[in-house]
């Protein structure tokens, strides 16, 4: 009997079993990889949002610290113990642009969450003349959130900048310490502003700004 040699198997293509194995392995690799990529991009967005909010916190903290350090109006009509010149009320809360006769801004300016007042002496005249430096922190709507503005009126000039974005206005608080009454004639030693800022993709970011008065 004559035997016909079997034709050598063609290596091209693959069998059904091989295809099923490849599909199974691909699923094992691709699904976790896809989940990892989704998680990565989510974390990237959240990290970028928190960095942006953290930057605002640093900027606004630096401004408030400087403004509170200088706060203080002297009562030149009153003599204190030992010939010292006492302070008079130098902080205003929920104040209009012209509160106490001290004008900074216009009637269109939102009420300030806090206004910090300080003596501003002009030594270019003789005798030196005294004016009042006013720093007002107010919230302005920006979509569903607000922006924290720092409005300064001093030396005959006015500047208005945004120091914090994405502020939740419902969380904004003002507090003072030593004494706790912000508008007291005994000017508080410490002023604190606290609020939360929020961006899509990130949890609410709590921000606390604190300043300490230097004038004694």
Automatic annotation (TrEMBL):
Database matches in InterPro entries: N_methyl_site, Pilin-like
Which UniProt keywords are listed? Membrane, Transmembrane, Transmembrane helix
Which residues, by range, are in coiled-coil regions?
none
Q: Name one Pfam family in it.
A: N_methyl
Keyword Ubl conjugation included in the entry's annotation: no
Q: Where are the transmembrane segments?
A: 20-41
Could you identify this protein by its name? Prepilin-type N-terminal cleavage/methylation domain-containing protein
Q: Which organism is it from?
A: Actinoplanes lobatus
